Amino acid sequence: MKAYRFDFDVPYAHVDQMRVVYYANFLVYFEMARSALLREAGISYRDMEAAGVMLPVVEAHCEYKQFARYEDRLIILSTCHPFKGPRLHISYEVFRDQTLLTTGYTHHVCMSPEGRLLRPTPALLALCGE
Description:
Blueprint: E1 3-9, H1 25-40, H2 45-50, E2 57-64, E3 73-84, E4 87-96, E5 99-109, H3 122-127
Antiparallel strand pairs: 1-3, 2-5, 3-4, 4-5
């Protein structure tokens, strides 16, 4: 399975009163990394949704190991796992340099705008190495 890399610097707006990244922002970072992963694979959310394929999050999990702070350069590695029917599992590892800060995953399902489950598109299957 290929890991996709997404790098960015933590903005001041993302830290809390303790001057560390507010915990819920890691889910935002997962979303940013997932969008970059799709773009790198030649898929955009906009085009996918225009074609009638949605990927709503149905489960999300984060495990915090170390703090991140303002202006830290974060590296997020995202890995797509093989589809199980319409269900997609993406795992994430967030690093500052070589230090692992956070791990997590999101589960998605392929569905139509009307809420019908869909088979994954060939592009999505290829993204996961299928």
